Amino acid sequence: MSRRLLIVEDDQDTRDFIAKGFGEEGYVVEQAADGREGLYHATDGGFDAIVLDRMLPGLDGLSLIRSLRAAGLKTPVLMLTAMSAVDERVKGLRSGADDYLVKPFSFQELHARIEALLRRPQESEESAILTCRDLEMDLLTRKVTRDGHEVTLTPREFQILEYFLRRKNRVVSRTMLLEGVWDYHFDPNTNVVDVHISKLRRQLDEGGGPPLIETVRGAGYMISDG
Questions:
Q1: 71 phi and psi angles, rounded to 5 deg
Q2: Which residues neighbour 77 within 8 Å (Cβ) at sequence distance 6 or greater?
Q3: 68-114 residue pLDDT tens
């Protein structure tokens, strides 16, 4: 059965170059010329991998991939960019990209990287469930329960809690939260992290259970099994 590949790239020459190469390798290729069209095709499902440009009209690549991950789609994504700075690559990976390739690139390397992504074991359904003590987060249904009772969270609170659960038993600093959740959009001196943590704590501890999010003085916060 042929692999299905989605190419989201606004430069037609680049798009055609990639499509031609993968077509010759036996892939079934679909194309999108802007971010919104790419998001529409990607959420329609059925793709084995996505090649995604970083800078796109309509919806940029980082926003597109965050939308895919928030919707629970685990399709491997390789991000293309003309920006070679390390912090730009880090932003892409933190947004949910699986690999990163700087333009200009050779088709042989792109093909090899996509093949490597497709060889990775796919995440099982169980991996979509994050837990800590009596708390459970379902990433597919976007449902959080504590001691069997549903906890209503805003999208931002859900994102913060997911960030903590993926780093369970480790200290998470305010800077890490600003970079990982807010993507550098706020001044490091802002109290936005503390405000959101305070609200999240109230929601999680409303049922009277022991506090889940601990303050680590001088370092940040931690959520742990202990």
A1: -85, 0
A2: 49, 50, 51, 52, 65, 68, 96, 97, 98, 99
A3: 888 778 899 999 988 765 666 667 677 788 888 888 899 999 999 99
SS3 assignment for 127-185: HHEEEECCEEEECCCCEEEECCEEECCCHHHHHHHHHHHCCCCCCECHHHHHHHCCCCC
pLDDT digits (tens, 9 = 90+) for 183-206: 655 555 678 889 999 999 999 998
Q: Are residues 140 and 105 in the same domain?
A: no
Number of domains in the chain: 2
Q: What does pTM read for this prediction?
A: 0.55
Residue 80's domain spans which residues?
4-119
Same domain, 130 and 114: no
Please report the DSSP string for 95-124 in residue order.
HT-SEEEESS--HHHHHHHHHHHHHSPPPP
Q: Specify the DSSP element, H or E, that contains 221.
A: strand 220-223
Last residue of one domain, picked from the residues 119, 141, 176: 119
- Give the CA angle between residues 64, 68, 124 to the nearest 5°: 150
What local confidence, expressed as pLDDT, does residue 160 receive?
92
Give the CATH number of the domain where residue 157 resides. 1.10.10.10
Helix (H, G, I), strand (E, B) or coil at 222: strand
Residue with tokens 């959740």, as numbered in its chain: 181
Residues present in the chain in total: 226
